[in-house]
Amino acid sequence: MAQALIFPLIEKGKLQSADVIGVVGSDASVARLTPALPDGLTLVTASDPRAMDAWKASVQLLAVKPQQLDALAESVGPPQSGQSSLLISVLAGVTLERLQKQFPGRVCVRAVPNTPCLVGEGLCGLTWGEGVTAQQRHWVKEAFEPVSEVLELPESKLDAFLALTSSGPAYVALVAEAMADGAVAAGLPRDLAHHLAHRTLAGTAELLDQQQLHPAQLKDMVASPGGTTMAALRKLEQAGVRTALIEAVVAATEHGRLLR
């Protein structure tokens, strides 16, 4: 996710590669990632003395695993005296209160981007911590806009936002896989079945979005009386697909709250 956010900013000239320091956990990660990095970008391990330079920067992007946060916070010193240091966290379930407690002397932002950011089609929810200036808000929104639609939300809404948008691609991938398997069972070659399933989902999402259709409207447009689509929809209703998806979003939301 860090690469998905940083690389477009470098490509558009909003960041200079030489001004970016990336910190990863191991030498193996440095070796694996370095060939794909823009020229001039520095990538080091957390044990490298240069890693501390990242924590002196005016903007820091925190994209580690949530379970690594405590150890990381203990190893990080305060920002340089008099510096307004901005910390942007993309960690699921880690509240602004916790961030501001573990990283004193910084102003914090919670960002919830989703994986379609990797192809410039993402969604990102932003919640501002205390002391974030108008200039910093503008910079953060500009940072995420090249890869996502940006929404400003109260923190109380982020768990549900994450459950729908960040976990949502997994639900859609499961649907895509099941649809393709059904087509294979009905006789289509697997490669073609996957292609058709993906294009059907992508085209349907674009139609819903561009024409601002309620999903029920599109369903009724497709489902003719007594037709094949109605036969399929009956099976989906009998299997409880609608309820399962509703409960999946609710379960993800509740689990997100438990991560605090």
Task: Please provide a written account of the structure.
The structure is a single chain. The chain contains twelve helices and seven strands. With 260 residues, the protein is an alpha/beta fold. The strands form two sheets. The chain has a five-stranded mixed beta sheet with strand order 3-4-5-6-7, sandwiched between helices. α7 crosses α12 and α8 crosses α9 (190-210). The chain starts with a helix and ends with a helix.
User: Mind describing the biggest β-sheet?
Assistant: 5 strands, mixed
- The overall pLDDT, averaged over residues, is 91
Uncertain spans, ≥5 residues at pLDDT below 50?
none
Shape: elongated
| Total DSSP E strands | 7
Distance between the termini: 21 Å
Give the strand content.
Answer: 5-15%
* Residues in helices, as a percent range: 40-55%
Number of distinct helices: 12
Strands side by side in the biggest sheet = 3-4-5-6-7
Radius of gyration in whole Å, from Cα? 22 Å
- Class computed from helices, strands and strand pairing: alpha/beta
H/E topology pattern: HEHEHEHEHEEHEHHHHHH
Q: How are the elements arranged and paired?
A:
Elements (H helix, E strand, L loop, with lengths): L1 H10 L9 E4 L2 H7 L8 E4 L5 H4 L4 E4 L6 H7 L9 E5 L6 H7 L3 E8 L8 E7 L5 H11 L3 E5 L5 H9 L1 H18 L4 H21 L4 H8 L5 H11 L2 H18 L2
Parallel strand pairs: 1-2, 3-4, 4-5, 6-7
Antiparallel strand pairs: 5-6
Helix pairs in contact: 7-12, 8-9
Brief summary of the model shown:
This protein has 260 residues and is an alpha/beta fold. Helix content is 50%, strand content 14%.
Which key terms come to mind for this protein?
260 residues; alpha/beta; five-stranded mixed β-sheet; two-stranded parallel sheet; 12 helices; 50% helix; elongated
